[in-house]
């Protein structure tokens, strides 16, 4: 705060004490009928740009981009009068300025209590009585706007005005208060202003650059470090008597002073456990030991000893199989009190139902292992570039499969049964699939693990295919059925209990291991979808774990100390040493103890590149001989999206697509995805792309013509770059005839090696590929043409350099009834029929919450009986997909290891402005001068992807010198159409049927 603003704030407060309220602003009028009123106070009265996002009970909901402006202003601040829906019981409100929220979380006014509420800037609590805000002009300890970044340095965004005095305050009893005289209660040490900026300091805190640097004297450093267990604040007093005060964010000093490199959680030696918890800010920690998962009282209570910022105790052999909680006494910023709370172990390795208690379990104990676990052998993987990944939800896999025993449906055990599903996976593995990627299977918070509470919508087939009754039935069961994607982590290091036969005890451990073992027996490695970028809850919420133990450390905080939630939940801060360590220890645990072969990082861009490099380096130390794991063969890939508070490297170099170049860690390639499909997840779903008829088969959104032709050529260039591993330096000729590179093509290419590109057309997010085709293809497109579009879309990731990634069931024309986000849509909309009998098209309109605006064009599509695929269509698609896998596995040219190899061996024809639109011609060569032979049977390969509805012939004089034949996998394969592709050597011409990808080879 500047001297001028400090003076103005003090003056306003003085005037307020002697003038009537009417002198500052008119009082709010009486509240009208069927109306709610939300009051909002900012201590500096800076209301410009602040508005309200209103929903739920609001008669007219406000778009995020058009916030409601205040209705009026009074002595408290501004207010909004909100007309209500008839019968509304609550009103949702977020006060925000652009994307800056205040205080952050969604807030709800309980209209059954009253229709008027008060919000104070920075405070999460919505008050039903008018708060006293008179002292806020001198500071606000409910916010934490200053940072204690190392043992002797604090940073605060206030000017170092001449004559200002700064101080650090601490109270072991949380008795600090702000008054007009400054901060009272507790102890105080002075701070001095450091006038010289330290580049090294801000290298670790780039978002704090420009803040005033404040220093502790050497004698005060040791004393103040003991205050880390206290309530903390910082204050400034200016010569005119005005001032400011705020609480502190302390992750920086905790990393500097309190980091711990040793083992945490429960470790075992000779059958005896040692318990250790990192809790540097806790004043006291006790261990509560329970006989059972829900017994009322602990059988033992143990005071843990403080040791190097951890709390530790040696346990007893008899604790094995018992349950425990920590009782932590700690200052909690969200309540501004010293709280005594119970918490589960962040390093839990076993749990009670719903994660209510941690379990004493030794994962080396034979009782935690399925028969033959230690002898489990993984299928061979020569290089990471050989991976082909199949994304699958544990419950989806078997919940609707009648060939699975009823007790095993939706569980880990289903992977061990002889069923339609396991038969399908075995067949794909034999064709060339290498990895099954499991959606979150760690302990998550959004499914009640007590199966007796679950409700099932049952068979909804009695409703018409275009009805809204199915979604209405499914929506009623949200949160009370057994389905959720699970991106809501509660305990990172324990398998999810709702997928186990018993969520208590070791069943979930044994059965997860048995699933991994069974997949290995099918010839498949296991990938886990991990969600370290956020936690499901924070503060004192029941599902909160990390923030109960070290409040304000593990979560990433905004400029005022509130938890960032750009990921949708409570963001974590892996740039903090102990959060990085927690993730590192957890990854190694899953790799060593569960033989997990790969990790997909949800919203990976919210981690730092240094995190991923550290985790990769740790994996590379694991060996089969010492650890039972080939660490160098562990896959790492994730979502490299750049958004939120970390965007643009604000918190450090984050793990985004471009930033990860050279790391060897893969990122999802949305460039090829959107080019194949058309549009993006944020545009009209009817927008067409390469595989959905753009230009050649105009639809409702794209009408054809020169504009669509140019657009198609541009998208085709993006696909070419994707097929070349999405390399930044890949050189080719673009649609305008210019020599260019992947990076120069509008930033399309960003990878520096093929493994860094994860090529895909669909995933669990957004609509399935089949659903996209149904919306984007012209109404006149036949069922047969739509099936061929699906096959064409599947072929592109399968035959490109990089890592192909497929959504489970895509080869079976999987539909979710055009649901854009089926994370909580229940079993009905997420079903897969592995027998290949039906794809369930026409199971009702998707959930209204995310899809209702598109119902008008969805309804007639769902009603069309001529668009319902049968067994023949599903068998064709599945067979063609398997053939693509066989082509890739049999031909090393599709699995190149280096950028140099790709640039030398992969070339594109039919480029430039005179190209045939909708045709990709890609050549791959083994016999390249200066490069070693790959040992491939076929020295020349040519791939032709024809997105046009009719056949296309491509001729090149040089082809007359080569004896091309259709790849044996396709010549003997399942697709009769591709067998019509022909090579005329005399003309040097290859003819490819419409909506077909053909692969020709020559020895």
From TrEMBL:
Gene3D superfamilies, A to Z: 2.60.40.1110, Glycosidases, Golgi alpha-mannosidase II, Immunoglobulins, Rab geranylgeranyltransferase alpha-subunit, insert domain
Molecular function terms, GO-annotated: carbohydrate binding; pullulanase activity
Domain Alpha-1,6-glucosidases pullulanase-type C-terminal: 837-1002
Pfam families: CBM_48, PUD, Pullul_strch_C, Pullulanase_N2
Domain Glycoside hydrolase family 13 N-terminal: 264-348
Keyword Hydrolase: yes
Residues annotated as domain Pullulanase carbohydrate-binding module: 35-127
Record-level GO BP terms: carbohydrate metabolic process
Domain called Pullulanase N2: residue spans: 143-256
UniProt keyword list: Glycosidase, Hydrolase, Signal
Signal sequence coordinates: 1-27
Family indicated by similarity: Belongs to the glycosyl hydrolase 13 family.
UniProt-listed NCBIfam families: pullul_strch
The name this protein goes by in its record: Pullulanase-type alpha-1,6-glucosidase
Native source species: Eiseniibacteriota bacterium
